[in-house]
Amino acid sequence: MAITNPFIESKLKSPEEVALALPRHVTLGCSGFTPAGYPKIIPPAFAKRIESEKKEGKDFSINLYSGASTGEELDGALARSGALKLRIPYQSNSYLRNLINEGSVDFIDMHLSHVVKYIEHGILPSIDVAIVEAVDVTADGKIYLTTSSGMSATYLLNAKEIYIELTDIHPAELKGYHDIYLLPHHSRTLPINIVSPEDRIGTDYIQVNPDKIKGIVRSSVPDSASEFKAPDSDCIAIANHVLSFIQDEISKGRIPKDYLPFQNGVGNIANAVLASMAKNDDFHEIQMYTEVVQDSVFDLIDAGKLKFASTSALTFSKLGLKRFHQNISQWKSKFIIRPQEISNHPEVIRRMGLIAMNTALEADIYGNVNSTHVMGSSMMNGIGGSGDFTRNSHLSIFMTPSLAKNGDISAIVPFVSHTDHNEHSTMVIVTEQGLADLRGCPPKKRAELIISKCAHPMYRSKLLEYFEKAKELSKGKHTPHYLEDSLSWHIRFLKTGSMK
Amino acid sequence: MAITNPFIESKLKSPEEVALALPRHVTLGCSGFTPAGYPKIIPPAFAKRIESEKKEGKDFSINLYSGASTGEELDGALARSGALKLRIPYQSNSYLRNLINEGSVDFIDMHLSHVVKYIEHGILPSIDVAIVEAVDVTADGKIYLTTSSGMSATYLLNAKEIYIELTDIHPAELKGYHDIYLLPHHSRTLPINIVSPEDRIGTDYIQVNPDKIKGIVRSSVPDSASEFKAPDSDCIAIANHVLSFIQDEISKGRIPKDYLPFQNGVGNIANAVLASMAKNDDFHEIQMYTEVVQDSVFDLIDAGKLKFASTSALTFSKLGLKRFHQNISQWKSKFIIRPQEISNHPEVIRRMGLIAMNTALEADIYGNVNSTHVMGSSMMNGIGGSGDFTRNSHLSIFMTPSLAKNGDISAIVPFVSHTDHNEHSTMVIVTEQGLADLRGCPPKKRAELIISKCAHPMYRSKLLEYFEKAKELSKGKHTPHYLEDSLSWHIRFLKTGSMK
């Protein structure tokens, strides 16, 4: 059902009209977080205009800012236009990723909790135009977002001009899911009054000056989250190791019986953990304080176990979205969507004592974790919120299958080729092989645990060989390394296609 | 003037009596933070007992926990006894450092804000005996600490037995400087009500069960902080770069005119920054929310510029201590001493928007910083609070002279041999050569800035050579590396004694 009012009617434009009105050299601040709630109509129209005007010799340059990753209609379309110059703060589009790794698009890989300040303080090029997906807009400038909050509020408030994609894909009852709260960034702040995931401290809309709204485009395109895949045996094995560990922590009194809230990253492993919790009789009344909720949350709901989930995005598959729409009124008591500065805020994360579960690309024998750079140089997606959560959570768990590329890559290496989370902050590493609890262990003990519990048997003796050589030849015996060989696994992979 | 009361009199023991009462296999939780307020009488007596009983074939093992570094009478004496097995969470004693790097003492290098939880949750071996320096003890078990807070409250509350070194080195007016506040660690917490460095939320004493106090030893030994050295030209150059940068940030509206509070690390560079602020007419009403205050604070006081300093330790030289004693009543309005969990708490650090200034051992061309591991393997002191502050501050600045070992080491390298603070969290790098503001820069831009602004001219062309080679040969061009050469500078140093 298309929402309307005289203000909306007065602002309606075609996507082509908006595309034509956009500056050729522009910094765009777009809605969207892990492809939820991003604009899907204006960017492809803009890309089309660029394509045609480039033939006439006109040049374009776009800086694209979002909350986190978006979909093909935004990241893909603008990347393919050839006009994209700078992208922040996270992406996961394969075409764009290739441009970044060829060196033709600049990418700034940021802690998601830092982005608001960098915008407010003018550290990054300032926002010319905000394009956000909304479910409603009022004549006095109240904008109601769709399935993500991300950076939208900040981009709307800082943009010179605003364009809205007014979608009819969601029922009007989506209004009320958001809790928009912005921190002052030019003065001291007071405590953020969130002590539990369900606490509301803001408004369910963003108030802008309505004069800045230069056009509204109607949209019926859904978010493009990928279909939910059943977890494979590695993911299930990892999930089981994690759950046993958490049960053990509860029995030791380190996690209260009513649980600390969970943060879990995106992807199959994170989904498997929630699916396993849903099936496990020892888990109940689950709370989440996280940045993305995916279809796996339905397992918890079906099992009657979801107490509450605070997130910055509801990233559902087509089937998941249908289910969400069917229950949209009732589930307002189950979900809050927050700006990423609040979902990822160190203050709230430390206070709530989150259990943070994120995916590693690789980890080394001492517990340093690489989440971003393949072979030290090629960007995968970005650090996203993993640094915000890892550094300040009660428990920081990193999960990865022990092998990648059919066994040609070991996720456990002598020395990570890039460090996103270091030995001081990584508390637990889990692969399908097992779990290494690194807390309270000096470096050499950590190496023994990681090699014996987490490494794949195919690489275990090779890792032990490195560790023994390092202990023998390293000048310093605190964290022994034999630097000649430290990066040799990565070098071998780059040369031969295998770490073997 | 020796404080006394009937309870104290009833508990008085000689250091030798206490030493004899200590278990042979013991976990000690001691007061002390950056050598301030640590026990100085009992540990040497214990070391003497160990020495003599070892000759009789008896074996000893000690786990030593403190707030941060301590003095020779504690770290040195116990390390020399040969009985030290485990040390947490920070140290700076040269004899102990050697044992750690030989591999004969285990050291767990921890974020200082994590230590309380690791103790409360029994992740580390539990505390048998607490030994703390105090200025007063009451019959009902109120303990008044001396010049540091650190971990003392947690160790006192968790120890089975308590010994006190009651010092007469400080006037009784030291009572009132502390603000002891402990967070619950087995349940949810509420906001910490500190919004400004001077906010008091706790008590000025630690309440223990007086039955646990097994002995009190009188002491007249002062803290052993080293004498204050006048900053050299490199330190002054670094300080001037930092101040110009901060002035520029103020003019851009990124730092409020009444300033955000400063955190500054230990050492000559940090001292030079404060000394330069004292002399610079643009700086006034300085606030600090930090973990250590050193003699350099007197420069601010003399210039009438110190508004307030919150710290976990007052680490003064002999002359500095004399001055502190002369003004001890009056300066209660200038200083608070807090437990390290609060001085280093992410919630308070992010809320106040600290300007964090810490020392790097080395930084690489992309902005990753090594604070702890010489050539990747040998422990210097530890990460201390640098991770707590860097990750959550408003501005994270790393400072280092561009050269070490008479030019044989370049502090700017192609690839750090250990990462304590990564490219996502390091905002500014400064050497005597200049300052690189890395915020909002993609990786290759960061490399250009760091090489041109921070590297010593002696190494600049070599770094550029690496960077050019990496850009040419790296498969991924986002963060180009040529892994064959990445650690070659460190390997060369280990083989030849020089990176040249």
UniProtKB/TrEMBL annotation, chains A, B:
Boundaries of every Acetyl-CoA hydrolase/transferase N-terminal domain copy:
10-217
Stored InterPro entries: AcetylCoA_hyd_C, AcetylCoA_hyd_C_sf, ActCoA_hydro, ActCoA_hydro_N, NagB/RpiA_transferase-like, Succinate_CoA_transferase
Q: Which residues form the Acetyl-CoA hydrolase/transferase C-terminal domain?
A: 320-466
Keyword list (alphabetical) reads: Hydrolase
Stored Pfam families: AcetylCoA_hyd_C, AcetylCoA_hydro
Which domain of life does the protein's organism represent? Bacteria
Q: Which GO terms describe its molecular function?
A: hydrolase activity
Q: Which family does it belong to?
A: Belongs to the acetyl-CoA hydrolase/transferase family.
**Protein name, entry field:** Acetyl-CoA hydrolase
The organism of origin for this protein? Leptospira kobayashii
